[in-house]
Amino acid sequence: MVTQAWDKGYECPQCEKNLTLDEDFSNRTWLCAKCSNPIHIHVADDKGNAYTLVRIPANLLQVRDLVVLGAKLDKDYPVLSSQSANKGQWRLALKEYRAIIVDANQHYSVIIGGWSGTPSY
Q1: Whole-number Å distance between alpha carbons of 52 and 48
Q2: pLDDT tens, the chain, 121 aa long
Q3: pTM of the model
């Protein structure tokens, strides 16, 4: 449930470095190749809203994380519960959405910051 359609830039806050896909990180893990910390993804929509995301596997989502589903940045879903389901599966309950069973390693975009106006990428 991850799209890169809105991605404007990538950085590692630990290494304090702007990153390049495939050179500095993989979109399979979304971790910095140098320090293995989650990278920050800067995204912006066509309405002038900008956000900073991390992309993490379902089994690392926590209650109150704000998950973005698909290609829509204008709606986020707070995680109400996140727990193991069957073998290799994870159950996520999302407010104003529903409970879903997904692969435990499937990545989701989580909003960690946001603002309105023109971002300075």
Answers
A1: 14
A2: 577 888 899 999 999 989 998 889 999 999 999 999 999 999 988 888 889 999 999 999 999 999 998 777 778 999 999 999 989 999 999 999 999 999 999 999 999 998 765 545 4
A3: 0.87
